[in-house]
Amino acid sequence: MAFGTHDSASEVMAPIKPNEKPLLVVVVGPTAVGKTHTAILIAQALRTEIINADSRQVYQRMAIGTAQPDEAERAAVPHHFVDFVQPEEMYSAGQFESEAMKWLGQWFQSRRTAVMSGGSGLYVKAVLEGLDEIPSDLTIRASLNERLQTEGIESLVTELRQLDPVHANRMDVQNPQRVVRALEVCLATGRPFSSFHNESVRERPFDAWVVGLRMPKEVLDERINQRVHQMVHRGLETEVRGLQHLADQNALQTVGYREWNGYFDGQKSREEVIEEIQLRTRQFAKRQMTWFQKMPDVHWFDAHEKDANENILNALRVECSQRGWQLNDTPTRD
Predict the structure, then answer these.
(1) What is the gyration radius of the CA atoms in the chain, in angstroms?
(2) DSSP state of 300
(3) Domain 2-132+203-215+292-332 has what CATH class?
């Protein structure tokens, strides 16, 4: 589905005029809420492309478990920052900020709009506000990794909750690398890790219009449960088996992957693995919403309503009209 006529689209595709800022449309919300579909509709309406802001969809060979946009979705609208990092490599929010800002800088030289979509709050924040430089202490990190091996992750999580309850409540506390990193900063600086994400907001050479997607908990929970079943049907187990030699890597410390370890060891049934993935995904979605609900200036829409995407496009049309751009409101099928 494409939106608008060539003439109306040419306005949002036109180069930026002097003293005019380009517009980055951002789509946020919890996993399984429908961000990819909505982002594609918006990008088609604007005749633009999509930056993916998801810390796990960057990895190759993890298409099923991270719910990467599929071939048809990427053919409908080009997606950037998807499926380009090897699972054994580290990729940080700081790297994403640098590379995404470089891409946007080049893109906005000739285009007025772009779309960014994703569920990683820190990645979204990195582009919209910038990240503060976070210190490191390799000695403390080594000590924490030793504790991780001898005491287990719960001991570290308990200490992190004492030193930085704000970050502990919104992060994935089942991810050992992230727990170690957050605790490392707390111990090295005497400050909460979360304080380094709130210091300053960098001025950006573009405006942002943020769309937030939400739905009732019971509806989202059912969508998550069904999505997990679909992933398993598509071959999630085979995908995870093919990455077992990398099970200790940071990329694999995520929901949908680490739960299979007990199954491969003969300690869990397949059904138990599926239920655990569903539970942890629902918990993850709750943390995502906690993060995004604290973001300022988000235009929230109820994604489960029939006219949700039409309402979003209508609101976008108003935003564009205020800039003197026109967006045709009649969808046409290619």
Answers:
(1) 21
(2) E
(3) alpha beta
